[in-house]
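Bit of a strange request maybe. I'm writing a small parser for structure token strings and I need a real example to test against, not something I typed by hand. Could someone generate the tokens for this chain?
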Amino acid sequence: MIFSDAAKNFMWPDNAVYLLLELYKEKEEMFNTSFKKHNILWKEIAASMMETSNTYNVTGQQCSNKLSGLKRTYRNIIDQNKKSGNGRNSWEFYSIMDSIFGKKASTKPPVEASSDGPLPPTPSTSNIYTSTSTPEVQNSTRKRKVESILENFIVNIREEREIVKKRIENNEIRQQSREAKYDEERRDRLKMHITKKWKYLNL
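Reply from user aminoacidic:
Good idea to test on real output. This should exercise your parser:
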């Protein structure tokens, strides 16, 4: 199938990753608390990505796998920061990942990411990553700036999604208008034909 081949060969550009994280963030509570199956939620996320751009030809499983990979990278960075005492990282998705999973990462050790989404939070008797808090505080200004940029980027993504949605709606309205106009013209032509025929028969 064309869809399967395109999805199989999909390469994740940064914009697609940011969109994936934003869509996941919107459904995060459902992943943690809903009785809805995770594979259905991932399919919905994949559908939203394709709705935003037809170049984002991905499956729900690919979205799940991508987030799992992002979570592994994020937790590896947390581990490295713990060992080195360094709270800064140049990974482009670090700040947005930290805004979603930061609290979870600070209260439990890194574990293999589930392809079904984030694991539910579990109680912890000690704050394992307390040692990373000091560098984060020292770099809070930089982090706020990065988060502000990410927030603006996410707002732009949402606006683009709304524009696409309105464009689809407008196209449907124009199509309906064209069909109505065509029907009206067809009725007028039929009326003229009948009128001419009636006049001819009454000559």
